[in-house]
Write a structure and sequence with these properties.
The complex is a heterodimer of chains A (about 120) and B (about 120).
Chain A lengths: L3 E4 L2 E5 L4 E7 L4 E9 L5 E8 L4 E4 L2 E6 L4 E6 L8 E9 L8 E3 L3 E6 L1
Parallel strand pairs in A: 2-11
Antiparallel strand pairs in A: 1-3, 3-8, 4-5, 4-9, 6-7, 7-8, 9-10, 9-11
Chain B lengths: L4 E3 L2 E4 L5 E6 L6 E7 L6 E7 L2 E5 L7 E4 L6 E5 L8 E8 L10 E2 L3 E5 L1
The chains are: A mainly beta (about 120), B mainly beta (about 120).
């Protein structure tokens, strides 16, 4: 059974800092890994999707890496801003069995960027 | 706004009552998922539809839960005899026509359920 863990559970940083969020998964047989953002009381917004054959993806100030063999991914946020404050969720689609593309999520990292 | 809509956005009910949620997917998205998210946790998979066929159900989906997707368009999730433990955010997500597993999922805003 796939399990996804995110560290740290919460992070508070001053504006302008670069930061790294960590995600690990127990089964390396995955189709892809995704990072989502969730604002309080809202749905999820996809930030980056990394296919199993890829090593990293970049979008603006965000960079996500994937090391499938070790079961790890990191989300790097450059020059953080107060508007980045949200919960960041990591999720994988596993290849085993009848996954039908369902996502297995970590518990999230709550990020607070203060001015 | 991803284009996936859910109704209602909030629902307060008393224990023992039945509730029904609706999800309207992006047009022509043939894959539809329901997830449940409790406070401080990531979403957990509940069930999956490909067009109108319900192909997978999680063990989290007890007999009190039923989901439908008539004609492969909108979907409904019904909870009968609600319990306080059902209080959560219920999220719907869809993926594009062709439904390749490598595509991202587009999430709706969710329905927040509170059972008193």
């Amino acid at each position: 059974k796939q399990e996804v863990t995110q560290i740290p559970a919460a992070l508070s940083v001053p504006e302008g800092e670069n930061l790294v969020l960590n995600c690990s998964f127990t089964d390396s047989a995955i189709y892809n890994l995704q990072w989502f953002r969730q604002d309080p009381g809202k749905g999820l917004t996809s930030l980056l999707l990394i296919q199993s054959s890829q090593r990293e993806q970049t979008s603006g100030r965000l960079n996500a890496s994937l090391d499938k063999s070790s079961g790890r991914s990191t989300l790097y946020i450059a020059a953080s801003q107060p508007g980045d404050s949200a919960t960041y969720l990591c999720a994988v689609v596993s290849t085993g069995g009848t996954s039908y593309g369902k996502l297995t999520f970590g518990q999230g990292t709550i990020l607070t960027v203060h001015p | 706004d991803t284009g996936v809509s859910q109704d209602p956005r909030h629902k307060i009910t008393k224990r023992g009552q039945n509730v029904t949620f609706r999800c309207d997917p992006i047009s022509e998205h043939n894959r539809l998922y329901w997830y449940r998210q409790t406070l401080g946790q990531g979403p957990e998979f509940l069930t999956y539809f490909q067009n109108e066929a319900q192909l997978e159900k999680s063990r989290l989906l007890s007999d009190r839960f039923s989901a439908e997707r008539p004609k492969g368009s909108f979907s409904t999730l019904e909870i009968q005899r609600t319990e306080q433990g059902d209080s959560a955010m219920y999220l719907c997500a869809t993926t594009p026509l062709g439904g390749r597993i490598r595509e991202t999922q587009y999430f709706g805003p969710g329905t927040r359920l509170l059972v008193l």
